[in-house]
Amino acid sequence: MRRAPRFGLGLGLATLASAALAALSGCYSLGLEPVEGARTVAVPVFQNRTLRREVEHALTRHVRREVLETTPLHLAAEDAADLVIRGSVQEVREQVLIAGPAQEVVHAAVTVAVRFAVFTRDGRMVVGDDVDGDGRPDGELVREGYAEFTAARGETRDTATDEALRDIAEMVVQELTARRDDRHEPNDDPREAVTITPGRQVALRQWNADWFRVVVPPGLGLSVTLLAPEGPFTLTLRSASAAPLPDAVMAADGRAGRVPPGPAERTVLVGVTGDDRGRPYQLLVRLSPIE
60 lies in which domain range? Predict the structure, then answer.
């Protein structure tokens, strides 16, 4: 289950959390354990340090919904919650990937950067970046969401921005819990490959081999980058039949690969292997002309 029906945010947070959790029981994995045994979390509206209006409200809605859908935590007011998420939208930038003959935007990408940290009710930081290396969080984490959009498919900068914000919400909530689940299972075999779309796939765990399917339109190439802080990960690109792709070019470290544009649509299978210890990783999938 990816997304649940929208709930009106005008309800009281406690009522909203109780109603949603009752309706969504079973939607989150029992492997999710909140940090420090917390039971409630507050998600005040993120600050907006960009010129794009309303992105802070959209991100806040996505984070609250992600909490309800994927964790056993209840939403609560700031003065009553065990944990408080505080953050800000730092940057929204757009990149034109394909321009038409009149320089119109045909295919483009949006990247959203967010800084955040998680605090206890008394202000102690419990989730953040360990800036001074003493083993305790003392700085905000930075996360980026990425999404592409194509005008011919009716996609816009706004729809791509919202997709990037949803990805960031997953990354934020992932920091609240000790995730042990693999939400794309079963995908241990090329025949079980899960279809994914261009953009950033977040909150992934490598317990077994993971296989994904990407449909590449004619005239566009594919680039895939595996992002992970640690672990012996290896990326593989295969054809729809799981045969090796003769035109695929792989990076020396095995964490990036690309396939050049072709005259017809084709399906590329993306495989990720590792040491099966549940290490976290992300996939950045881009469709664009590749020289």
Answer: 13-174
